[in-house]
Amino acid sequence: MRRPTLPSTPSWTLAFQEKVLGLLQAAVKADEADSGQFAMLKDRVLRQQGKPQVYGTQCPEQRGRQPIASADRGPEGAHRAL
Questions:
Q1: What is the pLDDT of residue 75?
Q2: Dihedral angle at the C-alpha atoms of 37, 38, 40, 41, nearest 10 degrees?
Q3: pLDDT beyond 70 at 57
Q4: I want to staple 32 with a disulfide (CB 3.0 to 4.6 A). Which of 8, 27, 45, 51 is the partner?
């Protein structure tokens, strides 16, 4: 089954992104959406809230597209489980 992907979200308001994030998380848990899409939106929302990323998917252009530090540097992948 081909899962739908999210469109680019720059014009979405933070409130709308937060609502979509909750719906997307439920869809990922039900195996109806891609977890990579969830990770990207989660990090985008966290950055807009001024918080550190969880997955490190958002790269600022002024840093040469290098990932921004994530919130948890614990065991590899442990913080990435939904």
A1: 45
A2: 110
A3: yes
A4: 27
- Return the DSSP state at 12: S
Query: Hey, what amino acid is at 15?
Result: A
Residue 5 tokens, joined: 């992907």
Q: Identify any residues that bridge with 53 across adjacent strands, giving them in sequence order.
A: 70
pLDDT at 10: 66
Distance CA 11, CA 39 (A): 18
Q: 73 in the Ramachandran plot: left (φ > 0), alpha (ψ -120 to 50) or beta?
A: alpha
Residue 62, pLDDT score: 55
Which amino acid type is present at position 28?
Answer: V
Tell me the domain boundaries of the chain: 14-73
